[in-house]
User: Which sequence fits this backbone?
């Protein structure tokens, strides 16, 4: 199996994980654990796409680290906003 085919299979598996964690058709919030799982899968998927499909593996280690740090910070920011939303809504008039 080629690297791209294996990466594609991993991406499809992570899509299934995200779909199941997101409870399609479910009512209410998926909770912090669910959103964390979805965001981790999305972060790993983005890293795989950057690395294998967009050629980041040929870039220097500084560029790879920069993109991975940016992806992680973005995921943490989204998770933080999701986690803080109930507190923000409680103080809003």
Assistant:
């Amino acid at each position: 199996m080629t690297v791209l085919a294996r990466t594609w299979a991993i991406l499809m598996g992570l899509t299934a994980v995200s779909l199941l964690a997101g409870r399609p058709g479910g009512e209410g919030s998926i909770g912090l654990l669910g959103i964390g799982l979805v965001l981790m899968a999305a972060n790993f998927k983005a890293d795989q796409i950057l690395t294998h499909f967009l050629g980041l593996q040929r870039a220097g280690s500084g560029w790879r680290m920069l993109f991975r740090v940016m992806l992680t910070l973005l995921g943490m920011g989204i998770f933080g906003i999701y986690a803080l939303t109930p507190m923000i809504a409680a103080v809003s008039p």
